[in-house]
Design goal:
33% helix; FMN adenylyltransferase activity; Riboflavin_kinase; 26% strand; elongated; 10 helices; Elongation Factor Tu (Ef-tu), domain 3; 286 residues; riboflavin kinase activity; two-stranded parallel ribbon; alpha+beta; multifunctional enzyme; Rossmann fold; kinase
Length: 286
């Protein structure tokens, strides 16, 4: 799945590119996650969107990317049938590069041993890349998700090899932020894993520029009675219309838990404090 394209995944990509050129190296991944078909209630939240994944593959040197639709037909292919299909699609296939825990075929019956044996018979070599270890543990998407869920953005970034990013499209909100002097962009269509509700400082990429912002992810208990989770960001020192635009949020810093204030005025004072704290994360002291 290459969910996150973390340092372990990047090691596999580097191993692939070391064996050939960009023009004859292909990365294959599935969409949607196989669990969406096998056991929908167990599908893990995404670390990267489909577009982010495509962009990251390209950044890490892969020009050719094949997204295979995972459906019931594909699920029911035996490991043997899967390899035969692969060879039919790529008759000049020379080698396959995978991680140690690679499994394939119906009920994940295929493993690297079978891949090596049948690959040799089908005319391709199998290269198995050892897992990457960080602080004594194998890097995995699961560990990154757990780090984000406990707001350990530093660890998540170390395992990813870059800052964790959340992307969304600015939609129409209630306009409350603007009326109290702190306009916010209401982010919608976010597919990546979100941290626990709370207030965060972050950096925001928009229109090839980087801004800093204060993010509130929560129920907005001070201004709405029947709350629903909202993700909104106030861009500090920004003026303009962001509706319909894509924002990319990264470099998160936890500020505080969300709380209900006794008045809007008290909320405004707290937001001003949150802004100053966010500035302290990103601006060097004079």
């Amino acid at each position: 799945m290459f969910d996150g394209i973390h340092l372990g995944h990047q090691k596999i990509l580097r191993s692939l590119l070391a064996l050939g050129s960009q023009e004859n190296s292909l990365v294959i991944t599935f969409e949607p996650h196989p669990l969406a078909i096998i056991s929908p209630e167990r599908v893990p939240p995404k670390l990267v969107s489909l577009q982010q994944k495509k962009t990251l593959f390209e950044i890490y040197g892969l020009k050719l990317i094949l997204f295979i639709r995972f459906d019931q037909r594909l699920r029911e292919l035996t490991a043997e049938a899967f390899l035969i299909e692969l060879k039919k699609i790529f008759p000049r296939l020379k080698r396959v590069v995978v991680g140690e825990d690679f499994r394939f075929g119906w009920n994940a019956e295929g493993n690297v041993r079978l891949l090596r044996e049948r690959g040799h018979q089908l005319g391709f070599e199998t290269i198995v890349v050892a897992p990457l270890v960080f602080q004594g543990q194998t890097i995995s998407s699961t560990k990154i998700r757990k780090a984000i869920e406990r707001r350990d953005f530093s660890l998540a970034s170390q395992l990813l090899g870059r800052s964790y990013r959340i992307e969304g499209i600015v939609g129409t909100g209630q306009g409350v932020g603007k009326t109290i002097g702190f306009p916010t962009a209401n982010l919608q269509h976010v597919v990546q894993l979100l941290p626990p509700p709370g207030v965060y400082g972050c950096q925001v990429a928009y229109n090839k520029e980087i801004f800093i912002g204060v993010v509130n992810y929560g129920w907005r208990p001070t201004i709405q009675e029947e709350g629903r989770l909202n993700l909104e960001v106030h861009l500090i020192d920004f003026e303009g219309n962001l509706y319909g635009q894509t924002l990319s949020l990264f470099n998160f810093h936890f500020i505080r838990e969300e709380k209900k204030f006794l008045s809007v005025e008290e909320l405004k004072q707290q937001i001003a404090t949150d802004i100053e704290k966010t500035k302290s994360f990103f601006y060097d002291p004079i």
